[in-house]
């Protein structure tokens, strides 16, 4: 198999994967080293593939019409599990977490959490780490990009987050479009 054929196969595998694929698992599948896979991913990214690295492996971000919405939320660290489970139980996928810091600007981390198992895995990672949640930098205020199969699901998530007191209003100093390039 040539390098180009392997990279085409990597894209195919990422496209059909239901969860992130690690470089080690891809290396084993293709009979190459992990470093070769890392280099392949770099080449694919350089050629325009939207491949994201998470702590669980690589994900291909498809250009789908799946609706997304950004929610600004506030809660304590102890309420993290409840907030995440609320979103996934209603059919949402938590794509990321980000904060808007007055000094640092937007600071973002990919999550890709779509189930209670994903929530449990995330909570175990945080519990086993000395790292603090990103939202600690902004006293519990943060944002999630949430995707769902339908806009109506995002409406339900918005309503339930509000009912549980997790929604927070935007301040005057916060930008409306966090992803706009200058």
From TrEMBL:
GO MF annotations, alphabetized: DNA binding; metal ion binding
Record-given protein name: DNA-binding transcriptional regulator
Domain 3H: 72-167
UniProt keyword Metal-binding, yes or no: yes
Translocase found in the keyword field: no
Domain Helix-turn-helix type as annotated: residue spans: 6-58
Xref: InterPro entries: 3H_dom_sf (IPR035922), 3H_domain (IPR004173), HTH_11 (IPR013196), NadR (IPR026043), WH-like_DNA-bd_sf (IPR036388), WH_DNA-bd_sf (IPR036390)
Coiled coil stretches, renumbered: none
Binding site for Ni(2+): 75, 83, 142, 144
Swiss-Prot/TrEMBL keywords: DNA-binding, Metal-binding, Nickel
Lineage top rank: taxon: Bacteria
């Amino acid at each position: 198999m040539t390098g180009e054929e392997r990279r085409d196969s990597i894209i195919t595998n990422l496209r059909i994967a239901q969860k992130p694929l690690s470089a080690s698992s891809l290396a084993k599948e293709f009979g190459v080293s992990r470093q070769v896979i890392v280099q392949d991913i770099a080449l694919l990214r350089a050629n325009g593939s939207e491949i994201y690295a998470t702590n669980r492996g690589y994900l291909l971000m498809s250009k789908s019409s799946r609706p997304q919405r950004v929610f600004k939320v506030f809660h304590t660290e102890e309420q993290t599990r409840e907030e995440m489970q609320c979103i996934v139980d209603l059919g949402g996928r938590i794509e990321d977490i980000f904060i808007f810091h007055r000094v640092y600007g937007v600071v973002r981390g990919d999550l890709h959490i779509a189930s209670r198992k994903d929530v449990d895995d995330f909570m175990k990672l945080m519990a086993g780490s000395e790292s603090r949640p990103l939202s600690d930098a902004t006293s519990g205020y943060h944002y999630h990009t949430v995707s769902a199969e339908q806009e109506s699901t995002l409406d339900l998530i918005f309503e339930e987050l509000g009912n549980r007191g997790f929604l927070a209003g935007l301040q005057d100093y916060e930008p409306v479009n966090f992803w706009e390039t200058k």
